[in-house]
Amino acid sequence: MNKELHVLSISGGKDSAALAVYLKEKYPDREFKYLFFDTGEELQDTYDYLHKIESILGIEIEHKKPEQSFNDMLKLYFNEYLPSPQKRWCTIEMKLKIFLKEMKKFQDYTIYNYVGIRADENREGLTPTEENITTVMPFKEDGITLNDVKRILNDAHIGLPKYYDPIYDPKYDITYNRTRSGCYFCFFMKQIEWVWLYEKRPNEFKKAMEFEKSGYTWIQDMPLSELIKPENIDRIKKSYKKMEEIKKKQPIKNGTMMQEMSFMSKHDQMIEDIEKDKLCTMCTL
Ligand code: SF4
Question: pTM for the complete prediction?
Fold first, then answer.
């Protein structure tokens, strides 16, 4: 097995975009295979960002889609049960399996799978365990942190995806934005991000609401029709403001502040906790 394949999955998020820039500069003569796993439920911002990366770097990102749509899978195999942090079937069915299927075409290659986990992160995510696939984390190895990622993207004139553009709400004196790539309905979003979706991408919010007609909800015990009631938006924004004030004073570390976080919804507490180390590398880098 002496042939090599160098693969970089681009999620539409900032870290994998920065990694594409970084690897191109570090290994100008190395050929990379760039993959994007398209769930068909992405924000237009993501497609625009991928296009920008392609044109600035002069690369081609292959879009790989599952054979069945999210909606078909939901109905045929999952009895309308929406994916959740506890049962994250979407990543397995729509990303990991497609990745492995693609890699099967290169069974006689040594495959290097580059992942954009940064040096300032403590997570592993989903990484394939196939014998011929080696996971490489250049940012971890080279001590690249969040500030470096932002600098790399600025220097390359790529910048951040559009969904990072902050909204300022003067009534609450808060600034917020979507913080992750992936499906517009991703259940890993905190409640303020759902509010962002409602305010900034209403069509996608409506589509996310449609999926709740089956009775399952994206957020436990909080249908989206409830979330958008003015009293709930008011509570979410106030809670977000409080959380941001706490974070400014002291960064959150491994559950040490759970007591102080008790004003937050259970959903947000859970996501805050998951975020530290378990978010999926295939969706959110
Ligand atoms: S972005 Fe979220 S909803 Fe979409 S596949 Fe990944 S985990 Fe699932």
Answer: 0.89
Please identify, by atom number, the ligand 1 atom nearest to the C-alpha of residue 182: 1
Helix (H, G, I), strand (E, B) or coil at 220: coil
Own/partner pairs, 101-109, CB within 8 angstroms, 24+ separation: 102/35, 102/64, 103/7, 103/128, 103/130, 103/133, 106/3, 106/5, 106/132, 107/132, 108/1, 108/3, 109/1, 109/3, 109/4, 109/5
DSSP state of 42: B
Compute φ and ψ for 7, nearest 5 degrees.
-115, 135
Closest by Cα among 36, 90, 86, 30 to 60: 36
212: tokens are 């709740």
Query: Which residue has the CA at smallest separation from atom 3 of ligand 1?
Result: 186
CA of 54 to the centre of ligand 1 (A): 23
Kindly report, residue by residue over 18-66, the tens digit of the pLDDT. 999 999 999 999 999 999 999 999 999 999 999 999 999 999 999 999 9
197 lines ligand 1 (CB under 6 A): no
* Domain covering 3-155 assigned CATH 3.40.50.620 in the classification: yes
What are the boundaries of each domain within the chain? 3-155, 164-284
CA distance 116 to 15: 5
Q: How far apart are CA 165 and CA 7, in angstroms?
A: 29
Verify whether ligand 1 is closer than 6 Å to residue 186 (CB atom).
yes
